[in-house]
Amino acid sequence: MTDQPEWEARVKGLLKSELKRRNVTYQQLVEKLADMGVKESEPNIRNKLARGKFTAVFFLQCLEAIGVTELRL
């Protein structure tokens, strides 16, 4: 896996699968992030995940918000 779109698809898939595994909707993610002091809107999160382009910081904030303590690659 060497090109950017493949990596973006992989990280997008990881986050979406963790949300699905925990039955967390985008709106619930917005609320959980807000509890951590992270301001995001539901449309913004939808767009980030649809594109697969977001920072490592956002990725980790989302995982923390939904309670992920381990991630298998």
What do these coordinates show?
The protein is mostly helical and 73 residues long. It has one domain (4-65). The protein is 66% helix and 0% strand. The chain is built from four helices and no strands. It has helices at 4-21, 26-35, 42-51, 56-65.
Descriptors:
73 residues; mainly alpha; 66% helix
* Overall outline: globular
Helix count, DSSP H or I runs of 4 or more residues: 4
* Helix content range: 55-70%
Number of domains: 1
Query: Which strand-content bin applies to the residues?
Result: under 5%
The largest β sheet comes out as:
none
Structural class: mainly alpha
**How many strand segments?**
0
Radius of gyration: 12 Å
In round numbers, the mean pLDDT is 95
Taking pLDDT < 50 over at least 5 consecutive residues as the criterion, the unreliable ranges are: none
Sketch the topology as an H/E string, one letter per element.
Answer: HHHH
Roughly how many Å apart are the termini? 13 Å
Summarize the topology:
Layout: H1 4-21, H2 26-35, H3 42-51, H4 56-65
Short structural description:
By secondary structure, the protein is mainly alpha-helical.
